[in-house]
Every structure is written in C-alpha cells, then in structure tokens.
Amino acid sequence: MSSEEYQALLSAETAEAAKDPFEGYTFVKQLGVGLTGSVYKCWKPNLSKAGVQDKEKPYVAVAVKIMDKAQILDINETEHVTRESSIMKAVCRHPFIITMSESFQTPSALCIVMEYAAVKDLFFMIHELGALSLFQTRAYFVQVVLALDHVHHKGFVYRDLKPENLLVRDDGYLRLTDFGFAKALKPGERAYTVCGTPDYLSPEALRHHGCNRAADFWAVGILLFEMMAGYPPFYGQTHSDLYRRITEGKHRTFPNTMSPHAQDLIRQLLRQEEGERIGMGAGGIQAIRSHPFFKGFSWSAVLEQRVDMTLPSKIEPDADLGPEDITEPCEVPCLTELYNLTDEEQKLFEGF
C-alpha cells in the first residue's frame, strides 16, 4: 500500500469514527432517570440495511438509554453497565423482553437503543387501577414468569423485578426491561451484592447469604400479591422495619377478595427457604403452570399472543407525534458536554 493510499484509508477511518451516531435522531422527552443516566423517547430514521430511508414510514420511535461515563466512573459501576448490553443481546429474543436494536458509545456516554413501549409501565397501571382484574393478573403473571424463565435458561439471574421494569405496549402485552442488575451465574454459584427495590428483596439477600434464581421467584410472589391487592405484601415504617418483616415472613393479611388458590400460590413463592419455593424444583416453572390458580387459563395462548390484552379506556397510549411536530427537542447533557476522560478510563468501557 502506498503512503497516499494509507493516508486515504486513515482519513476515512477517522471520518467514520467522528460521525455522530445520533445523526437524524430527534430526542422527544425523558422517560426515566437512573443512577448512571436516563432513558429517552426518540425518533430515529427508519433505514433499510442498505441505508435507504423508508418513504412511507421515514421515522420510527425508539427508547434510548444513555449512561454518563463520568457518573459511571464516579460511583464505580463500570462492570455493571458494560455487561448490561451483552446480557440484553443474549436474552432479548423473547416476546416479553424488550428488544435491543443496537448499542454503541461516544467519548462521553454509553448508549443502548431499544424498542419503544408506547403506553406506561405496570406500576402506573396499578396506581391508576388499584387491584388488577383476575384476568389481567393471570395474563401479566404468565408473561413475567415466561420472560424470567427465558433469562434463567440463558444463565442469568435478573435481580430487579418490580412493576416499574415491566413496560406495557399499546397491544397490552408486557416487556421486561432494565438489565442493569442482571448477572451471569453458573450452576451452584450465588450473587452476593444486595441490589434491587427494597419491597422486592428476598430474605436470603437481606441476610447476606447471596442469591440465585430463587430470588426472582420470590419477587414474582411479591408482584402477584401487589397486582391482586394494589399494594405490596411487606410494609415497614423504615427500611430496617421492612427488612425485618421480610426475613421473618410477616406479610400483610391477604385481602378478602383474593382467592384461596391465589393465596396458596403466593405462599409457595414466598417461602423463606429458597429451595422450597415453587418453580425451584426439577420441573422448573411447570409446577407454577399446573397450579390450580391457572385452571382454565392457557399459558400457550399468552405466549403466542392470541389473548386479547386490550387496555382499559383510562390507560391511554402516549401521543404518537412525529419528529416534525417536535418544536423543542429534549437536550441530553452528557452528549453535548465535553469530558476529559483519560485513555485508561476509556479502556474500562471497551467491553460495552
């Protein structure tokens, strides 16, 4: 290769590296805030594999998680965030798990582009509706268990189940999202970092005994109670009081509206001994599927999305305004501010 050809190749590579990965994107609004960054609704160009923009549908709505590298370094969360994209790539091919289309980084941020769920999350639905109907509860519960079973079979424990991490699409079906606390575990291994939402923490995690997929089944039991009652089963004036009640198994009294079968399933999920929880036996989630709570209810129909999940009229989808209707795009500070990260600091993000 001649020196002229080498310089031309080098210039092309430099130009490609300098290209703005968000060229053509319109940031609409902030959807949520976390420790290391935020999630935004965006409109992005709808391009074919050849890079040609679709004429009939030129833009598509996406959710973009943008994590500030400086913040990540400040709280020493590099390992967590760099593995999140790889875990999402491994598990996202499932009907009830959020789809990730791509991940990349800029000099100041880590970015994950995902499908956009156009309604709300399950927390919003419970807040608006109170206790969900029996049909809604069973349908959502099935979707969550199937999603977690897929995550477990891929070799991961999720560790952050809560209504806020269950997004509701406009077709009424759920998508499990946010894999920031997920971790790969080999058979017999345990995860010892205590993480997740206080109301959903398992007793073994609070006792610092470490946890495995049984902690996810515990959280499923908490979720089932909350969907049927409108509030979580454990309550305390302080975190210490809450944690004491969890480790002692002193949950709230079951509402009178909760059937004996529902109560039994919750009790089996909230066993203090993790090995005794339903779903942890040799048959896996088959024990949950065959529980009397689901008599006459088809798990297969839910998995194949043949069940009508039409949302209640008071739960309205997000206004689907196109990019041409956005007069003041949302600003993303960590994409515009310049950070002087060292080469050594940038290398910490190479696995993303």
Automatic annotation (TrEMBL):
<keyword id="KW-0547">Nucleotide-binding</keyword>
<keyword id="KW-0067">ATP-binding</keyword>
<feature type="domain" description="Protein kinase">
    <location>
        <begin position="25"/>
        <end position="294"/>
    </location>
</feature>
<dbReference type="InterPro" id="IPR008271">
    <property type="entry name" value="Ser/Thr_kinase_AS"/>
</dbReference>
<dbReference type="Pfam" id="PF00069">
    <property type="entry name" value="Pkinase"/>
</dbReference>
<dbReference type="GO" id="GO:0005952">
    <property type="term" value="C:cAMP-dependent protein kinase complex"/>
</dbReference>
<keyword id="KW-0418">Kinase</keyword>
<dbReference type="GO" id="GO:0004691">
    <property type="term" value="F:cAMP-dependent protein kinase activity"/>
</dbReference>
<protein>
    <recommendedName>
        <fullName>non-specific serine/threonine protein kinase</fullName>
        <ecNumber>2.7.11.1</ecNumber>
    </recommendedName>
</protein>
<dbReference type="InterPro" id="IPR000719">
    <property type="entry name" value="Prot_kinase_dom"/>
</dbReference>
<dbReference type="GO" id="GO:0007010">
    <property type="term" value="P:cytoskeleton organization"/>
</dbReference>
<dbReference type="InterPro" id="IPR011009">
    <property type="entry name" value="Kinase-like_dom_sf"/>
</dbReference>
<keyword id="KW-0597">Phosphoprotein</keyword>
<keyword id="KW-0723">Serine/threonine-protein kinase</keyword>
<keyword id="KW-0808">Transferase</keyword>
<dbReference type="GO" id="GO:0005524">
    <property type="term" value="F:ATP binding"/>
</dbReference>
